[in-house]
Design brief:
Blueprint: E1 5-13, E2 17-23, E3 29-36, E4 40-42, E5 45-48, H1 50-66, E6 71-80, E7 85-88, E8 98-99, H2 107-117, H3 119-126, H4 136-146, H5 148-153, E9 156-159, H6 160-169, E10 174-175, H7 176-179, E11 185-186, E12 191-192, H8 194-200, E13 210-211, E14 216-219, H9 222-228, E15 235-241, H10 242-249, E16 257-262, E17 266-272, E18 285-287, E19 294-296, E20 299-300, H11 304-314, H12 321-332, E21 343-345, E22 363-365, H13 373-397, E23 404-408, H14 415-425, E24 429-432, H15 437-449, E25 463-467, H16 474-495, H17 500-503
Parallel strand pairs: 1-6, 6-15, 10-13, 16-23
Antiparallel strand pairs: 1-2, 2-3, 4-5, 5-8, 7-9, 11-12, 14-15, 16-17, 17-19, 17-20, 18-19, 21-22, 24-25
Length: 504
């Protein structure tokens, strides 16, 4: 490595793709390769075979290294989706396909856990609004009941990042930010919550020990090194949950700085060192990558996923990948703000914020004979901005008004989408110079853990572009937003199960 320059390989493992990014120790992006894969979904279930993640990492790393000749990997960092449950053997082998975070089959188990643990007590302990079918704690209870052989055979129940760390280092560990959304991690204890594990009948020894984000886990194993084409012994560092990693990279380390990530999901994040566990609507609170700090995280389960769903189902004539999304933007750009009355409720996988309604579903409203496919595309984009406006109001009510907003995720690459957000929310949106904030956060933690830069040092790169609200758009978007809110209020009662007599 003496004749080569050192870089950091950051693995950003998302819901439908793996991004492998190479960064300099100063966190300048050198190369990025994306490998997509499909979820296996049916009903409330969503699974992925473990081998798909590894194959995507292998292929992505080969492509990234080929695009950055003369650079040698000096550290590996990770950031992954949360809540994806991975039962493994003592050798770290997957015992079944992984239950992806979108999988909500454990609804009955979640309801039982809510009764056992209490709603307010659960929120005070975990920072999670309530148990849901997507909760790993509920998924474990579901496994115990429906797949007891898998449960009994499992040596450890890992999250996705944990699984990849074991593949790379041979160590069973998990970092604390990825644990935030499990239902068994206590924010006050900064560790496992015994009462939650007891309620689900889960033995604590079946979970991996916890480490801090940015901790060096171990050197790259010889077998993994051969698979990846890297030298054995390269330091592998525990990263953070994807949303936490992105917030860290964007400088969301003090109150007033807000990140919004339009990726598979829509997530806003603002830092606090004294979280308020609201007695009203409960906003998700995660453990920050920095000890002693926390993140408020209003969540919309589908944002980019809604756009991809629309592309896959109704725009099959368009190209795949980035070219297809550009084509969608071009379509949406043909339609004026407000979509001439067409509104979309983006709840393809339930509503988390600003109103907890897991049964919520998506709705298009206001179509007429002049409505085109372009109107539908733009309404999907506008729905994300309406949801963000809700989020900003929630955060302000918690004492965290947004002084500065940074946009992250794939949606930030769309100038049209960014301008829609600025116009709907009436505030400026800055897009950082590095578009791969999640991977950059993983690289930053890896740089700290491998000693490439001093621990705690943050990148200082400014925004590459700022989108400011256009005053002329405010009236029409004010009306469209009001219609969006009225529509949700009108249809929400329809999301509730029909009474037995009515069903019969």
């Amino acid at each position: 490595m003496a004749s080569q320059k050192r870089c950091i390989a950051a693995l950003d493992v998302g819901t439908t793709s793996v991004k492998v990014c190479l960064f300099t120790p100063q966190l300048q992006l050198l190369a990025c390769a994306v490998q997509e894969y499909a979820l296996h979904t049916w009903g409330e279930c969503a699974e992925v075979e473990a081998g798909q993640y590894k194959a995507a990492v292998r292929q992505g790393l080969r492509q990234a290294l080929a695009a950055a000749p003369g650079w040698a990997v000096a550290a590996v960092g990770l950031a992954t989706q949360g809540e994806t449950l991975a039962p493994v053997s003592e050798a770290g082998e997957a015992l079944r396909p992984f239950l992806v975070w979108l999988d909500s089959r454990a609804g009955a188990e979640a309801a039982e856990l809510s009764r056992l643990l209490g709603g307010a007590e659960f929120y005070q302990a975990t920072g999670l609004p309530e148990p849901t079918g997507a909760l790993p704690l509920a998924k474990l209870l579901w496994l115990r009941r429906h797949e007891p052989a898998v449960y009994q055979k499992a040596h450890k129940f890992l999250l996705l990042e944990d699984y990849l760390l074991f593949w790379l280092t041979g160590r069973f560990v998990s970092e604390k930010s990825i644990q935030s959304s499990t239902g068994w991690f206590s924010l006050p204890l900064d560790g496992l919550w015994p009462e939650a594990l007891a309620a689900a009948g889960v033995e604590p020894q079946k979970l991996p020990p916890l480490v801090e984000c940015g901790s060096a886990v171990g050197g790259l194993l010889a077998q993994a090194a051969r698979e990846l084409g890297l030298p054995a012994g390269v330091p592998v560092v525990a990263g953070a949950m994807d949303q936490v990693a992105a917030a860290l990279a964007a400088g969301c380390v003090e109150p007033g700085v807000v990140t919004e990530t339009t990726g598979t999901a829509l997530v806003a994040a603002v830092c606090t060192d004294a979280p308020v566990f609201s007695g009203g609507h409960r906003v998700t609170i995660y453990r920050h990558a920095l000890p002693g700090r926390y993140l408020y995280l209003p969540i919309g389960n589908t944002a980019g996923m809604a756009l991809r769903w629309f592309r896959d189902q109704f725009c099959r004539d368009l190209p795949a990948g980035a070219e297809g999304y550009l084509a969608l933007d071009q379509l949406a750009g043909q339609v004026p703000p407000g979509c001439e009355g067409l509104v979309f409720l983006p709840f393809l996988a339930g509503c988390v914020d600003p109103d907890s309604c897991p049964q919520a579903s998506a709705v298009f409203f206001g179509a007429h004979l002049g409505t085109t496919r372009a109107h539908f595309v733009r309404s999907v984009l506008e729905s994300t901005a309406f949801l963000l406006r809700d989020f900003f109001e929630m955060l302000a009510a918690l004492g965290c008004p947004a002084r500065q907003v940074y946009s992250l995720g794939g949606g930030a690459r769309s100038p049209l989408w960014q301008q829609i957000k600025a116009d709907v929310c009436g505030r400026s949106f800055a897009v950082p110079a590095c578009s791969e904030a999640t991977a950059q956060g993983a690289a930053l933690l890896a740089a700290w853990g491998a000693g490439l830069v001093p621990a705690g040092q943050l990148p200082k790169a400014g925004p590459s572009v700022v989108y400011r609200p256009q005053s002329g758009a405010a009236p029409v978007y004010g009306q469209a937003y009001a219609l969006y809110r009225r529509l949700y209020a009108a249809v929400k009662p329809l999301f509730e199960p029909a009474p037995q007599a009515e069903r019969s």
